[in-house]
Amino acid sequence: MPTYRNDGDVTYRINDTDDLVQNVHPGDSIETYDPNPPDDFTETVETPELTKLISGENVWTGAVKPKGHLNISIAQSGSGEFAGKVTLQRSFDAFVTAGRDVKYYNSFEEDSIEDTDPNASYRLGVATDDFGDGILIVSLSK
């Protein structure tokens, strides 16, 4: 499946391979079946943002549909301790409206959830005012 990187200056809303509408910010990548990506997009081998380096607030992975199972990973990046709260959110409209917080993490850990609802999608990140200190890497995989 083709992967494209947004090399432009604006954020685009594009359907990914799970048919979720994703915000593709400048520099971000997306896997899509769209035969006509925007002119600012460049085909690449980069993977989409299901792994995100977090060093501040209001930073989220891209959304993913679990299709039964979803793996969650929260790991330290570099030295120092992370102080803050990582939030797992679920949405039934691909985060067009606000997602619902379903689980919180305050330390580095591995987790998984089961969800067979075909309309559910998840994202992982640190919400506004939930970041304290440190750098971490969060990942979602199915």
| Helical content (DSSP H or I, runs of 4+) | under 10%
Which blocks of ≥5 consecutive residues have pLDDT under 50?
Answer: none
The CATH architecture term of the largest domain is: Sandwich
Strand content: over 45%
Shape field: globular
Give the distance, in angstroms, between the N- and C-terminal Cα atoms. 17 Å
Number of domains: 2
Number of helices: 0
* Beta-strand segment tally: 15
The side-by-side strand order for the widest beta sheet comes to 6-15-8-12
Pattern of helices and strands: EEEEEEEEEEEEEEE
Q: What is the C-alpha radius of gyration, as a whole number of Å?
A: 15 Å
CATH class of the largest domain: Mainly Beta
What is the residue-mean pLDDT, rounded to a whole number? Answer: 86
CATH topology-level name of the largest domain: Jelly Rolls
For the biggest sheet, the summary is: 4 strands, antiparallel
Structural class: mainly beta
By oligomeric state, this entry counts as: single chain
Describe the structure.
0% of the residues lie in helices and 49% in strands. It is mainly beta. It has two domains: 42 residues, no CATH class; 91 residues, Jelly Rolls, CATH 2.60.120. Strands 6-15-8-12 form a four-stranded antiparallel β-sheet, with no helix packed on it. Strands 7-13-10-11 form a four-stranded antiparallel β-sheet, with no helix packed on it. It has a three-stranded antiparallel β-sheet with strand order 4-1-5, with no helix packed on it. A hairpin with a 5-residue loop joins strand 2 and strand 3. It is globular and about 45 Å long. 28% of the residues are buried. The model has no long low-confidence stretch (mean pLDDT 86).
